[in-house]
Amino acid sequence: MMHMTFYWGRNVNLLFDSWKTDSWFSYSLTLIACLLFSVFYQYMEDRRLRFKLLSSSALRSNADGAVDTTPLLYTKIFPRGSRWNLGRFAGSALFGINSALGYFLMLAIMSFNAGVFIAIVVGLAVGYLLFRSGDDEQVVVVDNPCACA
């Protein structure tokens, strides 16, 4: 039976029928996996935002008449001004991967186990601290405010 309220306990069925915990050892491994998965989510979100910033700054520098540093192969396959370029495909792939990671985290939280919830929230906070809160560079990208995107 699926829980509909938060509960504490080591018996969790997470994401798949085969991922069941029945001992404290398997439960703690599950919590560590949730924590690491959420840290990885923040890492991938940082990569996606930096890639988007990099590609938008490259487009702006080329529009200003600056020296072109784009690799020759890139410009031969996807010419400038083309609506379909490699940067858009790569950004779209990163967005898709990150969306899938976010939805997996959401589904894990929907197991309503308080330990899983805390592990994911702590992992997101640690990942944000490690990858996205740097003072060395301001990464400002106006984007979708949805938490899963």
Map the helices and strands.
Elements: H1 24-63, H2 72-77, H3 86-109, H4 114-132
Helix pairs in contact: 1-3, 1-4
Description:
The chain has helices spanning 24-63, 72-77, 86-109, 114-132. By secondary structure, the protein is mostly helical. The radius of gyration is 20 Å and the shape is elongated. The mean pLDDT is 79.
Class per helix and strand makeup: mainly alpha
Low-confidence stretches: none
Work out the count of structural domains: 1
Number of DSSP strands? 0
What fraction, in percent, of the residue positions are helical?
55-70%
SS strand fraction:
under 5%
Tell me, rounded to a whole number, the average pLDDT. Answer: 79
Cα-based radius of gyration, to the nearest Å: 20 Å
* Count of DSSP H/I helices: 4
Quick structural overview:
With 149 residues, the chain is an all-alpha fold. The protein has 4 helices and no strands. The chain has one domain (24-132).
Structural key phrases:
single chain, 149 residues, mainly alpha, 4 helices, 0% strand, elongated
